[in-house]
Amino acid sequence: MHTCAGDFSKLDMKHPLIALSLQPALVDGYNLEPLLQKCPSIRRLVIKPARPAALDRVLRLCPELEILGYNARTVPELSEEERKTKPAGLRSLRMPLFKRPFDYANIFPLLYKNKETLEDLQANWIIGTGRIKWGLLRFQHTDFSFRKLRKLNVWFGRGTDDIQQLFWRAIRGCATLSDIDVKGALLFPFVNMAIGLPCLKSLRVEAGKGPNLQERYSDLAPLFNASLERFLEQVQLQDTDAVTDGALTALAAVPTLKEITLINCTTVTEKGLGRFFQALGKHKNLAYLELAFMDCAEDRTIWMLATIPNLRVIKLKQLLNITDYGVLDMAKLIAERKSPLQKLEVRGCPGISQAGFDKVKNDILAHATCALLKSA
Predict the structure, then answer these.
(1) Cα–Cα distance between 158 and 350 in angstroms, integer?
(2) Sign of the torsion angle spanned by Cα atoms 56, 62, 137, 125
(3) Of 327 and 242, the one with more pLDDT
(4) Are 128 and 159 in contact (CB under 8 A)?
(5) Within the chain, what is the greatest distance between any pair of CA atoms?
(6) 243: which DSSP letter?
(7) Do 290 and 319 meet the contact criterion of CB atoms below 8 Å apart?
(8) Residue 355 has pLDDT above 90, yes or no
(9) Is the separation of the CB atoms in 283 and 308 below 8 Å?
(10) In the prediction, which pLDDT does 148 show?
(11) At 187, phi and psi to the nearest 5?
């Protein structure tokens, strides 16, 4: 492999190049197509920044592509072992960063072509296509279904209601999907899809409810109820009013949980949060808990974190209604129970003083790493 510095005329036809990373100084839209024509054996392609129109060229001219990074910060490396044991086709597609919304119609041909092999999908800033075009996609591709997907990170933008239904239908029942990170999804169809996933281990949801009546009265409780006998280990719920007290009660009943993060869940009440902490006291696997921007967290509930027996990490961020008294009570109970806490981080909580936290750090929890940070 050699560097052409933008002069791709030096490459022979059918050059045996298998990995290629293109930066603005090396290539532009005019010479992308002739470059790909000269390198039909490319298996890993990274393009940044890139325009959506380049996807069509990639689809036509890279038949052996396994990994495609499109404006992505991190892209997996090639694996010769996977090449020997897995069928040919795109396995990883990462295209998260577009300055402008990205039309689902531009990515659909690539998804459909590789529906049998795609394992890792990251696609953010997706907007919907027209209803007529969406209807044609649904009618012409009734067999659109992911079979090998393991990791999904997708951010839906405006006008994607119909597209989401097509997308979730393609994922429903996927026996390999274990990691979901979704933002902007309509709650009702998303929950219906996720209930049927047998191997879900990690779930991150950042989305509010939609305007229609069905969405307004939906929450995540049915999904957590369906996870009682499964393998859900990591849950992050952020910037959503879909997390009710009932949803937290259902979440606390999932016995396999190891990590929980709650960020700005606006409909949770103080009583609901207290019952949640109380129920978590039965968990033997839970090792990480983070609360951020949860105004319902107060001194009367925060001390109950000490009752979770095997908690290793506690992070409290931007909690406006907790004070030194709550943190001191929590720390004393942790020390009394000889809990295996390794790290306590308090960040941006105005009710926590340096003097009060120093007492926790030096006198009560000297065995743990304790940090008080003022910034958010």
Answers:
(1) 36
(2) negative
(3) 327
(4) yes
(5) 73
(6) -
(7) no
(8) yes
(9) yes
(10) 93
(11) -65, -45
Dihedral, CA of residue 125, residue 131, residue 136 and residue 142, to nearest 10: 70
User: Model confidence over 167-203: pLDDT tens digits?
Assistant: 898 998 899 999 999 998 888 889 889 998 999 999 9
Q: How far is CA 225 from CA 48, 194, 248, 250, 270, in A?
A: 42, 11, 10, 6, 22
**253-275 per-position pLDDT tens digit:** 999 999 999 999 989 999 999 99
Give the helix, strand, coil percentages of the chain, each rounded to 5: 35, 20, 45
The pLDDT of residue 15: 67
- pLDDT above 80: residue 77: yes
Amino acid at 128: G
Distances (CA, A) of 281 to 18, 252, 253, 278, 290: 52, 9, 11, 5, 16
Locate the DSSP E strands across 58-174.
67-70, 92-95, 102-103, 120-127, 151-156
Match 């910037």 to its residue by tokens. 239
Q: Where are the beta strands (DSSP E) in the chain?
A: 19-22, 44-47, 67-70, 92-95, 102-103, 120-127, 151-156, 179-183, 202-206, 234-240, 259-265, 288-292, 313-317, 343-347, 369-373
Is omega for the bond preceding 49 within 30 degrees of 0, making it cis? yes
Tokens 């027996």 correspond to 309
Number of continuous H segments (helices) and E segments (strands) in the chain: 14, 15
DSSP 252-320: HT-TT--EEEEEEETT--HHHHHHHHHHHTT-SS--EEEEES-TT--HHHHGGGGGSTT--EEEEES-T
- The residues, ordered by sequence, that sit 6+ positions from 80 with a Cβ below 8 Å of its Cβ are none
**How many whole angstroms separate alpha carbon 254 and alpha carbon 260?**
11
Interatomic CA distance for residues 144 and 173, integer angstroms: 13
Pair of tokens at residue 9: 């005329």
